[in-house]
Design goal:
- Strand 3 (82-87), helix 4 and strand 4 (110-113) form a beta-alpha-beta unit.
- This protein is globular.
- Strands 1-2-3-4-5-6-7-8 form an eight-stranded parallel sheet.
- By secondary structure, it is an alpha/beta fold.
- It has helices at residues 12-26, 39-45, 68-77, 95-105, 115-118, 125-137, 164-169, 185-194, 208-220, 238-246, 262-269, 273-276; strands at 3-8, 51-55, 82-87, 110-113, 141-143, 175-177, 198-201, 227-228.
- The protein has a single domain, classed as Metal-dependent hydrolases (TIM Barrel, Alpha-Beta Barrel), CATH 3.20.20.140.
- The two termini are 12 Å apart.
Length: 280
């Protein structure tokens, strides 16, 4: 089974004017990459996966807004493949009502947050009731915990080490650290290795040297089993992400540098992510 645990379904307007303007300044000039995608484009990109997790993002601080009804409606049209997460903003006054509505009414099965985009520390009290409810109800939480480009977004809220305290206080909570915590790979490794239900997804794009160094470090620390396949579509398609993994050792061909074992690459691609996240 192939599970893509990190995909977006948002229009460019839903990303908001702040994010969109800054994104287009830094987007890879070698790719014709649209920030927004339609449901049809997302569904076509799902062809190579058996199951796909999809979500939007809500962050009042950066004027990012995605109706959770949009995700739920799309998931309901392809329930055999798609799993939806509810996008929560802890700064919103009705965030707990939205969590309840997302799970009970919209039938979404996990949570997506982005602390740096929402300008809320992951250890802020506004997050803790979300954690308590998610732990009690078995809802995995996917965090954007990685660098990003909006000038107003605080990097200190994106460092994966901030989640160590979360793991201590909520030991049964299932957490996905998106983007392998790039560039804080070492902090991600040390966080996921000590908390049994903490994982990281692989969505760091096609950056050969970064990907090689990250995977070597995860391998040497014995936590490759904590990596979940994620494309970050539309940043990459699933096929592009898998191809990047398959050629990860090309950057060290002919050298004495260590290789990432091919068998571990295969295990990431075919990992039973849904069982690990309690979503079977």
């Amino acid at each position: 089974m192939i599970v893509d645990c990190h995909t977006h379904l948002m229009t460019e307007e839903q990303w908001g004017p702040i994010f969109a303007a800054e994104y287009h300044k830094v987007a890879d000039r070698n790719r014709s990459l649209s920030l927004g995608v339609t449901a049809e484009e997302h569904w076509q990109a799902c062809a190579g996966a058996d199951r796909v997790i999809v979500f939007g993002l809500n962050a009042r601080y950066l004027q990012i807004e995605t109706p959770n009804e949009q995700i739920a409606g799309y998931v309901a049209s392809h329930p055999e493949k798609l799993i939806g997460f509810v996008a929560l903003d802890p700064a919103a006054p009705d965030v707990l009502d939205e969590l309840e509505r997302g799970v009970q009414d919209l039938k979404l099965r996990g949570i997506k947050v982005g602390p740096m985009y929402q300008d809320v520390d992951p250890l802020d009290e506004r997050f803790h009731e979300i954690y308590r409810r998610a732990e009690k109800e078995g809802l995995p939480i996917l965090f954007h915990m990685a660098t990003s480009f909006p000038a107003a977004a605080r990097l200190r809220y994106a460092n994966p080490i901030r989640l160590d305290e979360v793991g201590i206080r909520y030991p049964e909570l299932r957490v996905i650290i998106a983007h392998m915590g790039m560039p804080w790979f070492d902090d991600t490794i040390q966080t996921i290795r000590k908390h049994p239900h903490f994982y990281a997804d692989t969505s760091i794009g096609d950056k050969p040297w970064w990907l090689y160094n990250a995977l070597v470090a995860f391998h040497e620390w014995g936590v490759m089993h904590k990596l979940l396949l994620g494309s970050d579509f539309p940043v990459l398609t699933l096929e592009e992400q898998i191809a990047a993994f398959r050629r990860v050792n090309a950057v060290v061909e002919g050298t004495g540098l260590p290789r990432v074992p091919d068998i571990q690459i295969d295990e990431i691609i075919h990992r039973d992510t849904l069982a690990l996240l309690g979503l079977t």
